[in-house]
Structures are given as C-alpha cells and as structure tokens.
Amino acid sequence: MAVDHDRNEAGVATGDDAERRLDLLLDDVTRTAGAHIGQTYLQVPERHVLQMTTSIGAPDRLAQSWSRIALAAPAPVPEAVRSRSPVWIADRQELARGFPRVALAFPYTVAMYAVPLATDGDCWGALLLMWPGSRREGLSAAELRRIGAAADRMAQVLRDATARRRPVRPREEPLVLDPKPREPVPVAALVDRFSDGFAELDRRGRMTFLTERAAHLLGGDRAELTGTDPWDAAAWLRDPAYENAFTSALVNRQPTAVTARRPDGVWLSLLLCPDATGISLRIRPEDSGENERDSRGEMPRSVHRGVRAEEEVLSTPVRAGTLFHLLHLAAALTEAAGVGEVAEALMEQMRPGLGAQGLALTVVDEGRLRVIGSRGFPPGMTEYFSGRLTATRTEGVRTVETGVPRFHRTNAALLGSYSRDQGFDAVKAFAFLPLTVSGRTFGCLILGYDRQRPFTQDERAELVSLAGVIAQALERARLHDVNAQVARGLQEGLLPRCLPHVPGVEVAARYLPATHALDVGGDFYDLIDFADHSAAAVIGDVQGHSVQAAALMGQIRTAMHSYARTGAPPEEVLAATNQLLLELDSDLLCSCLYAHVDVPGRRVLLASAGHPPPILRHHAHRAEVLDPPPGLLLGVDEDPCFQTADIPLPRGALLALYTDGLVERPGKDIGDSIGLLADQFAEAHDGRLDLLADEVVAHAQKTADQDSSDDMALLLVRCDVAGCEGAGADPARPGESEHGLPPTR
C-alpha cells in the first residue's frame, strides 16, 4: 500500500532526506535502464530478512507479496547480498536452473538484475530491476556502468545516513511510487458506443479511466470505481487466478485473457493488453447462449478456454501471497531430509516471509509437548511451550487435542490464563495451528506477532494451508530420521568402538556418513595389535550404500583380523580376503589398503587392492603420496596378484589412510585432489592427531558437494620409536609423546 505523504514534483514522498534520495535514485535508474519494475530492498539484521522499502512499476498488492525475503532464502536478491556480487537472470529458464524455488513461485518471463548496495565492506541491501521478456544478450557495458553507478550512489546514501546516526530502515509497507500519469484519453466518447467495456489501469493496478459500460459490467458506479483496482471493486474477482492474470500481463508484458463468472451467473471475458505505462482492459460479456448450461448442466466448451475449471469462485477469497508462500514452502521442505532441516527451513525462510515475530514448532512426544524448533520468542515463553503434559489445558494442547486452529487477535485471553508466565505480554497476537496428517494431529505450529493482528479470513485460510504443508513434510522427516537412526546404529555397530593402544603408535580415526544417503555405507577402518610393537592399519570401501554393503563390510573386517593374526604378510592377507568374497558370491566389490607398521624396524609394509594411495608426512613437514604396487579390487578375480611395498618410516612420521569420499569431487582430477590433501598434511602443525583429523574432515566437508552420497573415512597413524620399549632412544614419560602430548587413541 502506498504511503500517503506529500510528494515533490518527481512524485516521491518527502520526509527523511536519505529515504527521499533513495527513492529518487530508484526512479531514475529504473527509467534510464529501461526497466519496467524497480525495487529497493534493505537489510533488517535482527530479523535476518531483506525488506522492500520502495517499488515502482508494480501494484501495491503485488509489491506486498514480494515485500519480505529471508536473507537465507535461495533467491536472486538474497544471493546478491550474501555474495556481494550482482546476479543476472536472463529469462525464466535461467531462473529455474539457478533458483528453482523462485521460478516455481514466480512463473513469469522476465529478465532481472539484482545488485548489492555495498560500500566499505558493508552491504545495506539490494537494488532489483526487471525487464519484460527475454534479454539473452544481457546488459550492455554502458547499462552495467549506469546501474552500477546508481547502486553505488544508493549505498553511499545509506552509509552517510548511518554515519549521521540516522540509519535508513525499511518501511513497514513498501512505498509504491506513482507512475507518471498518461494523457487523457481523447477517444472516450468513441469507445463508450461499443457493447464492450474498456478500462485503463496504471502499473499499480488502479483504474484511471473506465467507460460506463465497463462500470456496468463490473457492477458498480463509474465515479466510485475510478481510482480503485478491479478486485477491490468487485469482490468476486479476488480469486488468485484473476489476480495472476493481471500480474502475468504486467510482468510478462504480453496480452493475457481470462474468463470470470459474476455472482449472477454471467460470464465475462477479460482481455488485458499491457505496455510501458499500464494496462488496457477490455471487458466483454459472453453470448447469452454461452451463459446457459447445456442439457447435461455443463458449461459450454467455449467458456472453458483459458478459464478456471471450477464452477464457482472460491467462497473465501485468498490473498495473492497465499500461492507464493505455499509454493515456496513446499519447494523448501521438499529438500529437507530430517526434522532438523524442516525446522531450519521454517525458521530461516518462512518466519520472515510470514511477518511473524516468533515461530515455534512443537510435537507430542511421550505425553508431552516438545519444542523441536523455535525462533523469535522470549526465552521464558519457549521454555513454557516445551515439556508441557498433554493433560494440561494450555492453548497448544487444546489445539492438538481438537485439531482446530486457534487465533488470538490480542494477547488478552492468554494473559488472563498465563499471567504468571514470563514473556506473554511481549507478544501481542498468537496463532496456534494444528499439524495434522491423515486425520491425526501430532503437533502444533505456534506463531507470535509483535502487534495486534486481525487475522482476516484470507490470512486464516493461508495459515491453515501452510500448516498442512508443514505437517506433511514433518511427518516424512520424522520417518526419515527414524530410518536413518536405525541405519546409522547398524553401521556404528560394525565399526570399531575404539582402537587398541599400541606402544609407540598414535592413532586417530574419523568416519563421516554421506550427506544425503539414508542407507548405510561400506567404508571401514581398523587397527590390529600384534603385541610385538607392530600393528596393521586397514582401510577399505565396499561398493554401494545398502544393508548388504554394511554386512559385507563386517565380514571383511572379521576375516582380515583372522588372516592377519596368523602372521601372514600383507599380500597374503588381501589374497585370502579376496577368496572369501568370491566364496560369498557377492556382487559387491571392495577396495582395501593394508599397512603393516613395524615400529622398531621403522618401516611399513603396504599392499593395495585398488584403493587410493596413502600419504606419508615426514617430521620435517614434507608430505609425499606413496605409490604401492596397484592391485585389483577384492572380488574381481580368482587369482589376483597382490604385491607388498617396503617403505621406510622415519621417526615421528605420519601415515594417512583414507577412502575416496575424502578426495573425490565431481569434475576434478582425483590425482590433483590427493595432491592437495598431501599439501594440507605438509602445512599442518605438529600436535594432537585428533585435532588434525577434525581439521582434515572439516575441510573435506566444505569442498564436498552438498548432495554427496559418498562416505568419508580417515585413519591417521603416527610412529614414535621412543614410545616403544627397547628401541634404544630416550623414552618419553609414560603416556606422553615426544611433544609432551598424550597419545591419541
């Protein structure tokens, strides 16, 4: 809704000088860049949102639908702010590739350019410009310079205002600048003679001119309808399909047709023809014969063309923002795997978009309400929500018991019931929404607002719909978490709980399951103590993610223990394990690296079965990738040839064994990735192995694809002859390495 201020000759609200200068700059850059829509977003750091403060070229209602975007949302404007770099979207296809959620909720063919308003390391917000249709050729160098200069000037205005301790805050509702008025229509008398009605809409959607016939067809008085928008003038046009037709015409800048049914049963054909200054609307009644039902009571075929299929318009009007929120939330929750991710999506993205001060997600757990996610509520209130017995008569419990949403325009009723509980007076309005799936209510979504809220029928319908989408996603996430917990428990049971202590040897191991894989994987590691100051370090990777892979991994670990303890050399241990896989008749293969560490002899005997090569880091901070003789994967051939390499092991040397999930990245040469890992070990500081292992795995997580389906396993072995009895070197004190640090196990 436009703010009613005095305006200067440019049509911009007067008031705070910095705000006025920002508005003037937006108006100027929108016109000079040839954009038909321009908007300014400013950060609200304490709410983690970007809020639109000014818009030009879009109607009030449309601007409000886009007025608040979570800073964490995957959208062009937040991306420009987060990256401090402009984001160019040439058309709808490119929008779908880069920001699929936005494309789903914003189905219009436009080109857009989001530019951060940044200066001196601070980013204040973003400038968003849109052009109709496709601009595959992009922006010219001159246009880029012009827009960049305007963004720099806007950022400078924001910086100067902050320096004067008068920072610019976004308006509660965006200021929608008036487009320049068009010349009076000289042919009004001519068009009034037609049976069709005609109206002229400005870019804010208001009818600046309409014929008597148009007013009659819309069911109102011409003088009263002038200056209003059609869906305010005629309540039966408040269906999202009709509003979307106007939005499509305005944004796509293409003629758009839709058919609407008046309450008296008359069907009207609406044709919207846009240009740079507004939209011409033609209203034509369908022929009387077409307004009648056929013998079967159905609408004639001609009425179905380009029209809603429903017989009646919605009995309860729904805001245009409903569809946006539902689609955006559905897209976000589709990507959420577990309960934690669902809660995070709600906190980071949906709470700001709903304009709620606080959001809490509660579920029934063993007779109590448990908060699984909360943001924005006073601490005392969140504690009150959590742990409440379902036998108590709190508002959340009532909502769960009845499955009926509860809306409180003010906090008066709750203060009367819960006056002793800290925090309720700070929240002025509440919505308690049931989380129901298949007729069963298992939780409650609680929204709190920092001011009284009327909760219109439109908003109630929207919030209930949103709660339904959230409930379905949460139920799927809860099932996912249960299955994942069982799978992870199985895998943890198959991996060693702790590694043995071998004199003169420090070890640290890390295992990280795949990011989005639900099934268990086949990565494994082990350390076998031979009680003669030597040990075998083993690492391997069974193909695939499944219970079968995990079971085979457990069998391989057990077999290698047995074969190794017979005193067999590394190549024979691998050969015997290979024979076992063939006898098991498994379709799965396994890579493996077996390292026999001889501490007093200062050497390591290596044998590989198609596994990534180990890395040896010398005490002098020099690392090398070892190259043991290659061997076939286990389970490939009945008579493979495995060979053992004898590698010197200097005192204090570190041997790193790992699986390919730690280094393999799409589109990158694995040899280069292994080299980078070796460099990381070379540059690492001396110290505790567990800290080094954490550092290596954390770095691997940062570089891994977010949707990675490969586990990571790491086994670090450091040898210190001084820790071995009878080695001849000066022994360190019991329980310490040469650096005075306790050995990591």
TrEMBL record:
Listed EC numbers: 3.1.3.16
TM regions (residue ranges): none
InterPro entries membership: Bact_Sigma-Reg, GAF, GAF-like_dom_sf, PAS, PAS-like_dom_sf, PPM-type-like_dom_sf, PPM-type_phosphatase-like_dom
Top-level taxon: Bacteria
Gene3D superfamilies on file: 3.30.450.40, PAS domain, PPM-type phosphatase domain
Residue span, PPM-type phosphatase domain: 502-719
Catalysis: reaction(s): O-phospho-L-seryl-[protein] + H2O = L-seryl-[protein] + phosphate
Molecular function via GO: ATP binding; kinase activity; metal ion binding; protein serine/threonine phosphatase activity
Top-level class of the enzyme under EC nomenclature: hydrolase
Positions of region (Disordered): 283-304, 726-745
Annotated keywords: ATP-binding, Hydrolase, Kinase, Magnesium, Manganese, Metal-binding, Nucleotide-binding, Phosphoprotein, Protein phosphatase, Transferase
CDD domains per UniProt: PAS
Occurrences of domain GAF (ranges): 21-169, 338-484
Pfam name, any one: GAF_2
Functional note: Primarily acts as an independent SigF regulator that is sensitive to the osmosensory signal, mediating the cross talk of PknD with the SigF regulon. Possesses both phosphatase and kinase activities. The kinase domain functions as a classic anti-sigma factor-like kinase to phosphorylate the anti-anti-sigma factor domain at the canonical regulatory site, and the phosphatase domain antagonizes this activity.
Name this protein carries in UniProt: protein-serine/threonine phosphatase
